[in-house]
Specification:
- The protein is α/β, with parallel strands linked by helices and about 210 residues long.
- It has 2 domains: about 130 residues, 3-Layer(aba) Sandwich (Rossmann fold); about 60 residues, no CATH class.
- About 35% of the residues lie in helices and about 20% in strands.
- It is built from 8 helices and 7 strands, in the order αααβαβαββαββααβ.
- The strands form 2 sheets. A 5-stranded parallel sheet has the order 3-2-1-4-5, sandwiched between helices. A two-stranded antiparallel sheet has the order 6-7.
- Helix 5 links the parallel strand 2 and strand 3.
- Helix 2 runs parallel beside helix 4 and helix 7 packs antiparallel against helix 8.
- The chain is elongated and about 65 Å long.
- It starts with 5 loop residues before the first helix and ends with a strand.
- The structure holds S-adenosylmethionine.
- The site of S-adenosylmethionine has 20 residues, from helix 1, helix 4 and strand 2.
C-alpha cells in the first residue's frame, strides 16, 4: 500500500519524456563514466535516475529521498532485481551519512527558472559532503531562457483576483483601501504555467547558461 500519494503525482514528472529521456540518454551515452562506479542519487523519488545509473553499469547506487517516495523506489528496485546494487535511504541529504564517498552524484534539482524549489542548494551540499575529489556531477550546467510576452486572458485573470480587495462590505468591513495594493501585488506575482510560442511579442530571447555545481 502507498502511504503517500506523492509518488502517484511523480508519474506526471516521469511521463515527461523530454525530461526523463534526456537523463537516461545522458547516463547511457556516458556509460564508461558509470561502469563499476559508486553513485549517489540526491532526491531519488521513484528511483528513476538510480535505475538509469544502474543500466549504465554503476556498481552501487545510494538513492536518497526525504519523502515517503522511498517506499516506492525500494519496491521498484526489488521488482527489477536491483536491490543488491541499490540502497534506498530515507532522509534529507543534509542530515544523512553514507559509509563511503561516491564517484558520481546524479540528481534532478531543477525547478522552474532553474532555481525555483531551492533544491540546487541540496545538490551542492551533497557534492561538498559526499563527492570524491575529481568526481562527476550529472548535471553540471543549467540554462535560463527569458522572453517578453503579453496575454490578455492571463492579465484579466490576475485582475479578477485583485477585484476581491475592492469589496467595501466584507462581513461589514471595508477592504477597498487595499484594492490598489492588491492589483500591484497580483500583477507582480510570478506565475508558473505554459504558453504558446505565438504569444511571444518579440521574437528574441535572452539565454543564460550557468555552472550549477
Ligand atoms: C523533482 S523530484 C525528482 C525525483 C526523481 N529524481 C526524478 O527525477 O523523477 C525531487 C525529489 O527530491 C526530494 N528532495 C528534495 N530536497 C531533498 C533533500 N534536501 N534531501 C533529500 N531529498 C530531497 C523530494 O522529496 C523529491 O522526491
Amino acid at each position: 500500500m502507498l502511504r503517500s500519494n506523492k509518488s502517484i503525482y511523480a508519474g506526471n514528472m516521469l511521463a515527461d519524456y523530454v525530461r526523463t529521456g534526456t537523463y537516461q540518454k545522458a547516463m547511457i551515452s556516458n556509460a564508461s563514466d558509470f561502469a563499476g562506479k559508486v553513485v549517489l542519487d540526491v532526491g531519488t523519488g521513484s528511483g528513476i535516475l538510480s535505475f538509469f545509473a544502474l543500466q549504465a553499469g554503476a556498481a552501487k547506487v545510494y538513492a536518497v529521498d526525504a519523502s515517503d517516495a522511498v517506499i516506492v523506489a525500494r519496491k521498484i528496485a526489488k521488482a527489477n532485481g536491483y536491490e543488491d546494487r541499490m540502497e534506498v535511504i530515507k532522509g534529507k541529504i543534509e542530515d544523512i551519512e553514507l559509509p563511503e564517498k561516491v564517484d558520481i552524484i546524479i540528481s534532478e534539482p531543477i525547478g522552474f527558472l532553474l532555481v525555483h524549489e531551492r533544491m540546487l542548494e541540496s545538490y551542492v551540499a551533497a557534492r561538498d559532503k559526499f563527492l570524491k575529489p575529481g568526481g562527476l556531477m550529472f548535471p553540471t550546467t543549467g540554462s535560463i531562457v527569458l522572453s517578453p510576452f503579453s496575454e490578455d486572458a492571463l492579465y484579466r485573470e490576475q485582475c479578477a483576483k485583485a477585484t476581491f480587495w475592492e469589496n467595501t462590505n466584507f462581513y461589514g468591513i471595508d477592504f477597498s483601501c487595499i484594492g490598489e495594493q492588491a492589483y500591484t501585488e497580483y500583477l507582480q506575482q510570478a506565475i508558473v504555467g505554459k504558453c504558446t510560442y505565438e504569444i511571444l511579442k518579440l521574437r528574441f530571447y535572452c539565454f543564460m547558461q550557468f555552472r550549477i555545481c
